[in-house]
Amino acid sequence: MNARSGPGLRPHLLVVGHRGSSGTAPENTLASFRQAIEAGVDMIELDVRMTKDFHLVVIHDRTVDRTTGGHGAVSAKSLQELKLLDAGSWFGARYRGEQIPTLREVMDILPARVGLNIEVKTDGDTRPGRALEESLVLILREQRMQGPCLVSSFDHRHLRRLHQLDPELLLGALYHPVRDLAKKPSTICRSTGATAFICSRTQLRRRLVDDVRAHKIFLAVYGVNSPADLAGVRGSGVRAVVTDFPAKIIREVRKH
Hints:
Elements: E1 14-18, H1 30-39, E2 43-50, E3 56-58, H2 79-83, H3 103-109, E4 115-120, H4 131-143, E5 149-153, H5 156-165, E6 170-174, H6 185-192, E7 196-200, H7 206-214, E8 218-222, H8 227-233, E9 240-243, H9 246-254
Parallel strand pairs: 1-2, 1-9, 2-4, 4-5, 5-6, 6-7, 7-8, 8-9
Antiparallel strand pairs: 2-3
């Protein structure tokens, strides 16, 4: 069962919780995802990396240093080693004891109404082969998500490998402002098999919007954290906004 088994990406403006509700809870933890779900998000966004023993865990950085009390690369640690780390205290004492979750653990708490945007991180992991892609496809098939699931990455080679493994996966190409500066969204999506194009609020330009509209590409924008940010991207054909403060942005969306 692939990621298209659930309903497609919905027609209204989607509010996506960036690393959960990362403005109000420690990013990429179950506490953060639960807050985003309670706020009423359409989707949650998270970051996935592979451990030394080939488990998929939810953490943004290539090392554990910033968001835990530990030190070292995620790819050099086993799942058991990562589970011993405190991923919540850096944000606040009330979150002491929050763990780095596995992708499966996050998917297990998602209600059917909430979709998932999995951003795959490949930087810093030099292991050859397709273990990450194969593990991700296997998990998505096993977990049988009911809501929409989008897999995104700045690593467009990774997206191409995923597309080869499962052409039915919904893929999102993240825009790199230097590497992709001269490329059109339609060119990027065509070369990766992606149906969604994702950029930051500050990267959004008329030429990108025009190309996305002309080719009917799903457009998502991240960094939308205030009513002013939301007003700035509305009317540009944006279909999803990714925010650190989902409760605040949802209230603003519902005013209109």
